[in-house]
Amino acid sequence: MRPMLYRSTLLTFALLCLPALRVARAQDASAWDRQSHAEARLIAGSTIKSADQTWVRAGVEIRLDPGWKTYWRDPGDSGVPPTFDFSGSRDVKSVTVQWPAPERFPDGAGGNSIGYIGDLVLPLEVTPKDAAKEPLLHLKLSYAICGNLCVPAEANLQLALSGNGAKEKALEKDELRVPRRVALGEGKDLAIRSVHRESDGAHERVTVEVAAPKNAPVDLFVEGPTPDWALPQPQQSGPIGATRRFTFDLDGLPPGAHAEGATLIFTAVSDDDAIEVPAHLD
Fold first, then answer.
1. In angstroms, rounded to a whole number, what is the distance separating the alpha carbons of residues 263 and 281?
2. What is the pLDDT of residues 233-279, one digit of tens each?
3. What pLDDT shows up at residue 257?
4. What range defines the domain where residue 188 resides?
5. Which of 13, 201, 239, 268 is such that its CA lies 20 to 30 A from the CA of 181?
């Protein structure tokens, strides 16, 4: 083949491949939706198959300007949790949002908020309606971000999930930050050993004992059975030994709700581990 003809053939082949390359990149991540002090996008991983289900690994990636924060599903004393609207999706049966372990930070009004400082990824489990079809994930995301002041943010995101997204390894790493669901008393280095409801006649409170490596920092968060429970966050008391004691008052129950028999969700977080434990109040 003549050199000029050879180069022309290569150029033609490369131009024909460009649309396919653009599609491949589009399946790895959506475009960033930029807001003031934050931006968000969808990212895609691989299809996961087991004996009883098939789902696609994906995620919501949020980048925040330095010093800005956003909130967990329970924002604490103040703040607004993110909301997710996937109703515009196609060939999607369900989407499960997973929450990485949060941290506690001052809210500027004397209380504490719960959330994330800096960049984060919220992993998603996307279950398709038909495993033979490619789901189109559409998300309307509403979230709040805070620096010296708090402002609302929104993102309108869309991504086709081929099941071969290039963000698989990154998403696997992000999922390691999601607290493991374990039973009360289970765990080796980090465990919630006991939950006790106590009363002095005028007030009821809950005491929680958490086992953790000695001198390792640990925090504990509590949620009620439904989002309208506004329980105060547990406060640590006593020495920092192998067993930590946290307490909180049974305040903030919605009208008509009763603490006895309710199932609370406790999330314990240390430097390198996090667990989520449901516990009944007797």
1. 6
2. 999 987 677 799 999 999 999 999 988 889 999 999 998 899 999 99
3. 92
4. 181-280
5. 239
Residue 20 parent element (H or E): helix 3-28
Mean pLDDT of 40-45: 97
CATH of the domain at 247: 2.60.40.1150
In a domain, 271, yes or no: yes
75 versus 78: which is more confidently predicted? 75
Q: Look at the chain and report how many structural domains it folds into.
A: 2
Q: What angle do CA 210, 265, 183 make, to 5 degrees?
A: 60
Please state, in angstroms and rounded to a whole number, the distance separating the CA atoms of residues 138 and 124. Answer: 12
Dihedral of CA atoms 68, 123, 44, 55 in degrees, nearest 10, equals: -160
> Do residues 150 and 144 lie in contact, with contact meaning Cβ atoms separated by under 8 Å?
yes
Taking the C-alpha atoms of residue 128 and residue 132, their distance in angstroms, rounded to an integer, is: 9
Per-residue model confidence as pLDDT tens digits over 105-132:
988 888 899 999 989 999 999 999 998 8
Q: Tokens for 236?
A: 């640590």
Query: Can you give the pTM of this predicted structure?
Result: 0.86
Report helix, strand or coil for 142: strand
Q: Is residue 159 part of a domain?
A: yes
Alpha helices (H) in 76-164, listed in sequence order: none
Same-domain check for residues 144 and 201: no
